[in-house]
Design goal:
Subunit structure: Monomer.
Number of helices: 13
Strand order of the largest sheet: 12-27-28-29-25-26-13
Structural class: alpha/beta
Number of strands: 29
Largest sheet: 7 strands, mixed
Helix content: 25-40%
Oligomer: single chain
Family: Belongs to the class-I aminoacyl-tRNA synthetase family.
Organism: Flavobacterium azooxidireducens
Catalytic activity: tRNA(Gln) + L-glutamine + ATP = L-glutaminyl-tRNA(Gln) + AMP + diphosphate
Strand content: 15-25%
Radius of gyration: 31 Å
Subcellular location: Cytoplasm
Shape: elongated
Distance between the termini: 50 Å
């Protein structure tokens, strides 16, 4: 059992209660059951962390089971991406299973349902069946085919399986109660005809089980003890249990479905259908576009598995759906990267700084700390020369007393280097500053121990040596949607809220130590934010994605608006 020192969420309380009532701990088994019809998103990340987290806490197996019952929308690409995402998050499944593993068993059970007069073949159109379904306040009416003989049903069902009928001509329905207050119990579909190639079973099957039929039975076959679903499946629980009632053997583990609330993320959408729309219509480049809420997109952006797991842990599990501000996720990312990302220097909006009294042609390689959070500090060498790039916003020709960066006649320290004083500027014909001239104090080198090096100045700025600078493409991201809940108003197309300025591509200059950086390497560009090497990067052309800023500036922007 779990330690009582930590407060338990309601799912853990259910499990603890079951154990207290005699359920054997070694019979606990969980599963994560994705449909391979798209890439996983941040909402799935919470479910992954919940199920695999329970497996870790209770030292119980967790299956990865693909709900591959709709070949019209499923692809092997999605299977591979899902496995990759789960492993990247730091989890490993006990068994890799597929609903398609059970197609024969599900079919055999369906035949038994027909023999027991608990299922029948309906030959109406989907429109006719929908009309007969009734409404929440009006009972449904029976299908004219509801009382077909067992023999006719068995014959039709087998011929459906054999591919003798076109799609849409027949379905298999459970015979339950067309007057049930739960509309899902009004003779739900169990099978439909689909003449589609399946990515695992090929063309063997012409009929495919519906989710409600396959899900609970797959749980039962695998011995899943607790089947955890999102809240929209709460009305399905009655049907889940009804299907199990028909086949349950008291000597086996009976799965228990329980529901938890979705945690929606602000300024994004977490519907695979809508994410697919964004990809297909070209609003983003791919499923792993760094603006997407997919796990692969967040990975490409530079988010870490630890940060996503910490985010899932922070928001917890609840019974009510709510909207989580994306700034909380960004806080978790920032907190993790602060501990692990090396500090480097990059200039993204460059202007040239010339140190007039530094010897022509001279260069120095200075010591720079990699990460002050390290237990044992490590250092790298950065080159210094007469000509440097600094950020344009780090200089003002005339500034007020609150500006602590470089101005004419004032001193600042160049990070890891010397104290400089602004002297004059060079301007073009339009009066724009093209070059800043400054002088340096030769005795003020950082870490030299001289009196001058210990002199206090009000500001420190970063820089990159011009002769050594490496040009890089830098992708700056903003929210993909301007509205915090783009999916909230069903009367408005969520795409109306797409942010036209969600991506800005600029050229920056980075220190030469980054020349060998590899895709997914993460860095803090000092004073600018956290950045990750993109998969498009190469030795000839470095490409960085901005992961997150050093501070949460979004809250301030929203406050102004």
């Amino acid at each position: 059992m779990m330690s009582e020192e930590k407060s338990l969420n309601f799912i853990e309380q259910i499990i603890e209660e079951d154990l207290k009532n005699g359920f054997a701990k070694d019979k606990l088994r969980f599963r994560f059951p994705p449909e391979p019809n798209g890439y996983l998103h941040v909402g799935h990340a919470s479910s992954i962390c919940l199920n695999f987290g329970l497996g870790i806490d209770y030292q119980s197996p967790v299956n990865l089971r693909f709900d591959d019952t709709n070949p019209a929308k499923e692809e092997q690409e999605y299977v591979d991406a899902i496995k990759r995402d789960v492993q990247w998050l730091g989890y490993q499944w006990a068994e890799e299973r597929y609903a398609s593993d059970y197609f024969q068993e599900l079919y055999d059970w369906a035949v038994e349902f027909i023999k027991k007069d608990k299922a029948y073949v309906d030959s109406q159109s989907s429109e006719e069946m929908a009309k007969q379904k009734g409404t929440p306040t009006q009972v449904g009416t029976n299908s004219p085919y509801r009382n077909r003989s067992v023999e006719e049903n068995l014959d039709l069902f087998e011929r459906m399986k054999n591919g003798e009928f076109p799609e849409g001509t027949h379905v298999l329905r459970a015979k339950i109660d067309m007057a049930s207050t739960n509309m899902l119990m009004r003779d739900p579909l169990m099978y439909r005809i689909l003449h589609k190639h399946h990515h695992r079973t090929g063309d063997k099957w012409c009929i495919y089980p519906m989710y409600d039929w396959a899900h609970g039975e797959s749980d039962y076959i695998e011995g899943i003890s607790h089947s955890l679903c999102t809240l929209e499946f709460l009305p399905h629980r009655e049907l889940y249990d009804w299907f199990l009632d028909q086949i349950y053997d008291a000597n086996k583990v009976r799965p228990k479905q329980r529901e938890f609330a979705r945690r929606n993320l602000s300024h994004t959408v977490v519907s695979k259908r809508k994410l697919l729309q964004l990809v297909q219509e070209g609003h983003v480049t791919a499923w792993d576009d760094a603006r997407m809420s997919t796990i692969s997109g967040m990975r490409r952006r530079g988010y870490t598995p630890t940060s996503i797991r910490n985010f899932a842990k922070t928001i917890g599990i609840a019974k009510r759906t709510n909207l989580i501000d994306v700034s909380l996720l960004e806080f978790c990312v920032r907190e993790d990267l602060n501990k692990t990302a090396p500090r480097v220097m990059a200039v993204l909006n460059p202007i040239k700084l010339v140190i007039t009294n530094y010897p022509d042609g001279q260069e120095e390689w200075l010591d720079a700390e990699n990460n002050p959070e390290e237990e044992i500090l490590t250092y790298r060498k950065v080159p210094f020369s007469k000509e440097l790039y600094i950020e344009r916003e780090d200089f003002q020709e005339e500034a007020n007393k609150k500006f602590f960066r470089l101005t004419l006649g004032t001193e600042v320290r160049l990070k890891n280097a010397y104290i400089i004083k602004g002297e004059n500027v060079i301007k073009d014909a339009d009066g724009n500053i093209t070059e800043i001239h400054a002088s340096y104090d030769v005795d003020s080198k950082s870490g030299s121990g001289t009196e001058a090096s210990q002199r206090k100045v009000k500001g420190t700025i970063h820089w990159v040596s011009v002769p050594h600078a490496v040009a890089a493409e830098v992708r700056i991201y903003d929210r993909l949607f301007t509205h915090e809940n783009p999916d909230g108003d069903k009367e408005v197309d969520f795409k109306n809220y797409i942010n036209p300025n969600s991506l800005e591509v600029i050229t920056g200059y980075v220190e030469p130590s980054l020349q060998t950086a590899q895709p997914e390497d993460k860095f803090q560009f000092q004073r600018l934010g956290y950045f990750c090497v993109d998969k498009d990067s190469s030795a000839e052309k470095l490409v960085f994605n901005k992961t997150v800023g050093l501070r949460d500036t979004w809250a301030k922007v929203e406050a102004k608006e």
